[in-house]
C-alpha cells in the first residue's frame, strides 16, 4: 500500500492524541516547534549543497512533517486545516502565474503567455502589491525581523532598491565598505564595545549589499566558506595527528603551514 499525506496526517493526529499520544508531541505549541522548523530547513539546504539526494529525500520528509505538525495544532484549535494550507498555496500560485494559468484558471494550462524573466519578476511583484492593497505600513514591514540577519539585510536592501534608494552598481559599494571598516577601526581604538558592535553591523550590512549587487546570496556564500574551512581544518587535524601531536602542541606558524598544504591539495 502506498503511503499518502492522509497517512502522515493520521500519524500526527495519533502523536497528539490527548489520551494515547506521545507526551513530548502533545506538549508542543507553535513557538516551541519553530526552532526545529528552521533547523530542518537548514538541513535541507545542507543536503542540497552536498548533492546528497538520499539525505535530501529524508530531510524534505522532516520539513514536510513540520508543516503537518503546525496544521494539526491549528486544526485542534479550529483555526485551519492542512487542506486549507494546500488550497491557499494552490490559489496563490495560480493567481501569481497568469502567464502559465490564464486568469488563474488551472483548466487553461497549456495556453501560456510568453514573458521574459524580467517581465515575470515585475508581474510577480505587481500581483503581490495588489494582494496587499493600499497600506500606510512601512515598506519594510513585510521583512520578518525573525529572518536570519544576512538574509534579512538583503531583503531590506531589495525593498528599498525598488523605490530608488540604491547605488547604481557595485563600484560605490566598495567605497562604502572601506568607509565602514575605517569607522570600525576607530571604534576599536575607542575601546567602546557598543560602538564596535554597531560598526561591525554596518560592515556586515555593507558587505551583504555588495553581495546583492554581485547577485550572490551572502548566506549561501558564507556557508560554502564554512564548509571549505571545515574541510581544510579537518586536514590540519589529520596532519597533526599523523605526527603524534595535538593541535595545542603546534605553533600558529606550524598550523599555517598545514593549512597551506591543505590548500595545495585542493581542499
UniProtKB/TrEMBL annotation:
CDD domains tied to this protein: NTP-PPase_MazG_Cterm, NTP-PPase_MazG_Nterm
InterPro entries: MazG-like_dom, NTP-PPase_MazG-like_C, NTP-PPase_MazG-like_N, NTP_PyrPHydrolase_MazG
Catalytic activity: ATP + H2O = AMP + diphosphate + H(+)
Coiled-coil portions: none
Presence of the UniProt keyword Aminoacyl-tRNA synthetase in the record: no
Descriptive protein name: Nucleoside triphosphate pyrophosphohydrolase
Domain NTP pyrophosphohydrolase MazG-like: 28-101, 175-232
Family designation: Belongs to the nucleoside triphosphate pyrophosphohydrolase family.
Pfam families: MazG
Protein's GO biological process: dATP catabolic process; dGTP catabolic process; dTTP catabolic process; dUTP catabolic process; response to stress; TTP catabolic process; UTP catabolic process
Gene Ontology molecular function, alphabetical: ATP diphosphatase activity
Gene3D superfamilies: MazG-like
E.C. no: 3.6.1.8
Highest taxon of source: Bacteria
Keywords of the record: Hydrolase
